[in-house]
Amino acid sequence: MGGEPGPGEEAGPGGEPGPGREARAAAEPVVAVRQASRVILLDPDDRILLLHGFEPDDPTDTWWFTPGGGLEGDETHEEAARRELAEETGITDAVLGPVLWKRRCAFPFDGRRWEQDEWYYLARTDRTATHMEGQTALERRSVSGLKWWTSEELSASHETVYPTRLVELLRALLDEGPPSAPVLLETERA
Q: CA-CA distances (angstroms) from residue 153 to 95, 134, 147, 156?
């Protein structure tokens, strides 16, 4: 996921926690706002690729999220999106499109409180084979797999997905195409 806020620190996958971690959040220090890029990766059948994450100390606390992570050094948002996609999924040939959405989120993860600004890029790929060999140590402890989802599968799912409006946002993207300018999503705090 990259873009660590400080030496030896890594943010949680997906920029969000699963349910049930409010008690841990109270004791977690807040870090500086982290800049992050996320990718809405679609295949030729308009399926979206999501990663399955979990709280390292509670593997039953799970959620699905888009590939992406923090900016490193003087990396641009676009460069971070490409790097994160390659590290987390092994996909390096995706065609990166416009920024669809921007949001701020705050969440507890792995004993810390995170706050980040996220830019969501549209990307397309013909390649659906993935691998997770490029993940960080924390990602290996908190990501169990990847899955291509149809919009209908996401709509029918009762699993936690971040951002929380992803089902609605994906449906609008598929029906109407990308917005003419990035849409500012409401802040999500857990």
A: 24, 27, 11, 5
| Contact present, 50 and 149 (Cβ < 8 Å) | yes
Residue 154: Cβ within 10 Å count: 19
Torsion, CA 102, CA 107, CA 112, CA 116, rounded to 10 = 10
Helical segments of the chain, H only: 22-25, 77-89, 137-142, 151-156, 166-176
- 22 exposed, middle or buried (CB, 10 Å; 0-12, 13-18, 19+)? exposed
pLDDT in tens, 110-126: 888 889 999 999 999 99
The answer to whether the beta carbons of residues 142 and 56 sit under 8 Å apart is: yes
pLDDT tens-digit map of 13-70: 565 544 444 444 455 555 689 999 999 999 999 999 999 999 999 999 999 999 999 9
CA–CA distance, 109 with 94 (Å, rounded to integer): 29
